[in-house]
Amino acid sequence: MKASSTQIQTYTNKLYRTGLSTYQASDFREKEKLAVNSIGIEYQNDLSDTDILVTNTHLNLKDLDQKELEKVKLIIHPNSGYDNFDPSIVRSLSAPIILGNEIRAQAVATYILGCFYHAFSTPPFSTSWDKSRSWKRKSLEELNIQIIGNGHIAKILHQSLSPHANQISIYDPYTNNNEMNTQANCIIMACSLNKLNQEMINSSFLKQLNEDCVFINAARGGLVQMNDLIEWLNIRPKAKAYLDVFHPEPFDFSMMPANSFNTSHLAGVDEQLDQRIINFVTKVSKDWLSLSAKDFDSRWSNVYLSKKIIKNEFI
Questions:
Q1: Cα distance between residue 153 and residue 107, in whole Å
Q2: Mean pLDDT of the chain
């Protein structure tokens, strides 16, 4: 990165990626390597003397060589989950950590919308003509929806559902500016996880919900006390849960009742995900190389992980 608009500092321009997720293609590393090589960055196999570190959801920064980590000048975290990171370590690093919330936001929102419409408006398909032509369902215009969280995904959901629903409430668990509507027809989780909101969905919360409430969680599994949710689903057969994340993972789906619809932490995955990750890593790295420190900060500081620390907890 340029130290200023007039003074250029030379770097070795080395990038190291810590690991891949199971959904990523076998040729992902080679494609990412070609992409970063094209902008003058060496793709290396270890952390030593690295300028740019690319992390994944499962990484704990404590597991890295701390002396080498201190040398890193930029950290790219092309994920939205960061509860494995330690706020005190994040604060101690001189390198900014860039979050990749934008990479999966649309995909996760689309997943949640799919669950929502499956719950409230799945067409009664049939192989023969139904003379009754009846369809017992709630009108979407009557629905009240509670979104817990106020980030990228929550904003997409609010924009998408507003034309259809009666009321959409946003509850930010980190500011508590709005009251929680526990009588909503649908509860959607769209917040991050920290020690303060861990297992916020528990028996005391669930017992306040309507007997036919729809609960959707594609955020973080640790937000939910799973045993309490299973018990609630068992005693509320009209209720439904759509779950993409669990604690722990992998989770034994045989434990889940019939009114739970489960997927394996794939809400943010689609056919273009690998390329979006590569594009993001390349874009951030290129800006870091070409922009002044001031201009880079201006462009990316809104997604610095350090900006999401309040009272030594991530929000």
A1: 9
A2: 94
198: phi then psi, degrees, rounded to nearest 5: -60, 130
User: According to the 3-state scheme, what is the secondary structure of the chain?
Assistant: CECCCCCCCCCCCEEEECCCCCCCCCCHHHHHHHHHHCCCCEEECCCCCCCEEECCCCCCHHHCCHHHHHHCCEEEECCCCCCCCCHHHHHHCCCCEEECHHHHHHHHHHHHHHHHHHHHHCCCCCCCCCCCCCCCCCCHHHCEEEEECCCHHHHHHHHHHCCCCCEEEEECCCCCCCCCCCCCCEEEECCCCCCCCCCCECHHHHCCCCCCCEEEECCCHHHECHHHHHHHHHHCCCCEEEECCCCCCCCCHHHCCCCEEECCCCCCCCCCHHHHHHHHHHHHHHHHHHCEHHHHHHHHHHHEHHHHEECCEEC
Where on the phi/psi map is residue 176: left (φ > 0), alpha (ψ -120 to 50), or beta? left
**Model pTM?**
0.92
For the chain, list the domains and their CATH numbers.
14-102+270-314 (3.40.50.720), 104-125+134-262 (3.40.50.720)
Query: Each residue of 289-315: pLDDT tens digit?
Result: 999 999 999 999 999 999 999 888 888
Q: Tell me the angle at which helices 152-161 and 101-121 cross, rounded to the nearest 10 degrees.
A: 40
Per-residue pLDDT tens digits for 88-98: 999 999 999 99
- Asked if 53 and 75 count as a contact pair (C-beta separation under 8 A), the reply is yes
How far is the C-alpha of 79 from the C-alpha of 24, rounded, in Å?
A: 13
